[in-house]
Amino acid sequence: MAVATQRAQDLKLQTFIWQGKDKRGKVLKGEIEGKGEALVRADLRKQGLTGIVVRKKPKALFGGSGKPVKARDIAFFSRQIATMMSSGVPLVQSLHILSAGQKNPKFRKLVDNIQTEVEGGSALHEALAKHPVQFDELYVSLVKAGESAGVLDTVLATIADYKERMESIKGKIKKALMYPAIVIFISMLITAMLLIYVIPQFQDAFQSFGADLPGFTMMVINASEWMQSHGIWLLLGFIAAVAGIVFAKKRSRNFARTLDRLLLRIPIVGPIMHKAALARFARTLAITFRAGVPLVEALESVAGATGNIIYSDATKQIMSDVSVGHPLNLALRQSGLFPHMVVQMAAIGEEAGALDAMMVKVAEFYEEEVNNAVDTLSTALEPLIMVVIGGIVGTIVVAMYLPIFKLAATIG
Question: Which sequence ranges are marked TM in the entry (predicted)?
Fold first, then answer.
């Protein structure tokens, strides 16, 4: 097997730049993929070209490694392989076709490595398991179940659907968090610009009045002076705080747990996060259980797919309860985190032997709830942004014109 693997690596496709002349003497240039310069040159000769020059394409100095392989790329990989295999194309050939059509070098290299492993005699799930960053345990276990049952193309198509739905939910969550962040950022930016650049202009004019300024105006001027002196430190402190939170969340599970718990309690955004976690829980449980994965093992995969540590910890406790004989619906109820509807649907599914179908219904319900909630949030926050900006500008305008009104009243 080692010899076969080495031979496959030696015959891996590479990109070459070529130049040659056709029968009319016209110089032609281009790029071609091949397994070696000699083979590429032979292929070009068969096309009637002469004076052929072939060289390996050099790697780009900047950005040559390509973009990172993302979840949507894995969904595309699953969909394409499933489509070709269902059409009768062998797995190795499907991988070769997919690799040849990729423009992202990192993605192409990933597919090439998988193809090399499969050509060397490894099962697809074994080849995927060597790339845990792109293919997690859930993906590998589903592919393994599909290979064992002889329905790999169907399982891959199901995985593609699952990945696309998960990415859709993730996008909705980002959108739900982005709108409040935008409101805060715009408010802070406009306030800072007014305090640093606009207020000083009024301050110079007020000095010529020679009169005492209203308290409200003095408060705004003092804020402006403080911002001019300490604004850069405030900005650096804000950046450091954000970076510190991100770093601590990655390094400390306890901190991440506290952050996720707070996120679930934020008004408006919290309910969306709850619904998104429930949708992920139900969708992941449905796809794993439908693929023939035992319930306890399925729950282990679900724990890592909920997207929230609070739900992940609850799922692990549910898995522990189920492993000692508790029905799933009872374990869900005891966690205190799952709504009555989810518990009842699980009970019906267990009783009817259709747990996967019931969980699909639950997932579809909460996915629709997330969509509606995010659309409502975005609609409500658009006018709120205008109100906040108008309030900031209006407050500063009033503060700056109070001395003018006071002076006019004195003269009158």
Answer: 176-199, 230-248, 384-404
Residue 65 counted as domain residue: no
Q: Is the pLDDT assigned to residue 358 strictly greater than 90?
A: yes
Q: Is residue 4 part of a domain?
A: no
Strands (E) located in 289-383: none
CATH number at residue 290: 1.20.81.30
Its domain, for residue 82, covers 71-165
Range ranked top by mean pLDDT from 87-101, 167-181, 210-224:
87-101
Q: Tell whether the model's pLDDT for residue 7 goes beyond 70.
A: no
DSSP run (H or E) holding 120 = none
Mean pLDDT to the nearest integer, 387-406:
80
Q: How many CB atoms lie within 10 A of CB 39?
A: 13
Higher pLDDT, 205 or 150: 150
- 318 has pLDDT over 90: yes
Give the predicted TM-score (pTM) of the model. 0.68
Residue 88 phi, psi dihedral angles, 5° rounding: 95, 5
The whole-angstrom separation of Cα 354 and Cα 346 is 9
In the listed set 142, 165, 188, which residue is the last one of a domain according to the structure?
A: 165
For residue 194, which of 205, 184, 186 has the smallest C-alpha distance? 186
**Which amino acid is present at 347?**
A
* Cα–Cα distance, 178 to 185 (Å, whole number): 10
Residue 230 CA to residue 141 CA, distance in Å, equals 55
User: Which of the listed residues 165, 185, 206 is the one where a domain comes to its end?
Assistant: 165
Confidence of residue 251 (pLDDT cuts 50, 70, 90): confident
In 3D, which of 164, 142, 156 has the Cα closest to residue 297? 142
Which of 283, 296, 291, 3 is closest to 125 using CA atoms? 291
